[in-house]
UniProtKB/TrEMBL annotation:
Phosphorylation of dTMP to form dTDP in both de novo and salvage pathways of dTTP synthesis. The keyword NAD does not apply. This is Thymidylate kinase. The lineage of its organism: Bacteria, Pseudomonadati, Pseudomonadota, Alphaproteobacteria, Rhodospirillales. It catalyses: dTMP + ATP = dTDP + ADP. InterPro entries: P-loop_NTPase, Thymidylate_kin-like_dom, Thymidylate_kin_CS, Thymidylate_kinase. Keywords: ATP-binding, Kinase, Nucleotide biosynthesis, Nucleotide-binding, Transferase.
Length: 218
């Protein structure tokens, strides 16, 4: 039997959009179809990138300036791409990634004001514009997302809460960023309405993925 083509799918969205639950459900969906799946995340996803994650997500909110933060994101991303993502795709696996470079455009570019152009240059330099085949943009009204996220932080926030401390205006810029990214690349980026119960959102995602798969050349 020939090896299937690898598929790289990223999930994006603001806090509390339900990405991790939905990634696990999509993992099952692919496994039921006989595919090997790697679930990974950013920042992180390879041993070196996980070390950089710890530098990024712990400590004082002002620990890094925006440019340093963006460089660390891309340093971790390059390691992740080279050590985890590309090898998995070469073996015909499905890679499901919780956030990828669009998060740097949204968070560091729009959120922290470095601008999308600056981040896109880093994207080109660090990983030669390597992109997901499909990006699922989990879309939720800001207030709903932050409410959900707030409930979660009460239980598990632990030490990794540096990013959660940032203000509402920041989250508005993020949302704007994700919308503009989607508008610029409508074929790769599909908006998923993340409002609704888990099964409803999962059905929206599998329908979108199914449609993407059938639109691919055989
Ligand atoms: P995480 O706990 O994984 O959050 P989430 O569940 O929201 O994905 O922490 C990742 C944080 O890092 C999140 O607040 C978004 C931020 N981030 C960036 O600022 N830039 C990036 O390029 C990436 C990948 C993440």
């Amino acid at each position: 039997m020939s090896t299937p083509d690898g598929i790289f799918i990223s999930f994006e969205g603001g806090e509390g959009s339900g990405k991790s639950t939905q990634i696990r459900l999509l993992e099952q969906w692919f496994r039921h179809r006989g595919r090997d799946v790697v679930v990974t995340r950013e920042p992180g996803g390879s041993p070196g990138a996980e070390e950089i994650r710890a530098l990024l997500l712990t400590g004082d909110p002002g620990r890094w300036d925006a440019v340093t933060e963006a460089l660390l994101m891309f340093a971790s991303r390059r390691d992740h791409v080279e050590r985890t993502i590309r090898p998995a795709l070469a073996q015909g696996q499905v890679v499901l990634c919780d956030r990828f470079a669009d998060s740097s455009v949204a968070y560091q570019g729009y959120g922290h004001g470095l601008g999308a152009h600056f981040i896109r240059q880093l994207w080109k330099l660090a990983i030669d514009d390597f992109k997901p085949d499909l990006t699922l943009m989990m879309d939720l009204p800001l207030e709903t997302g932050l409410e959900r996220a707030g409930a979660r932080f009460a239980n598990v926030s632990a030490a990794e809460d540096r990013f959660e401390k940032m203000e509402l205006a920041f989250h508005r810029r993020l949302q704007q960023g994700f919308r503009e990214i989607t508008a610029a690349e409508p074929h790769r980026c599909r908006v998923i309405d993340a409002n609704g119960d888990i099964e409803t959102v999962a059905a929206r995602i599998s329908a979108t993925v199914e449609q993407f798969l059938t639109s691919q050349p055989a």
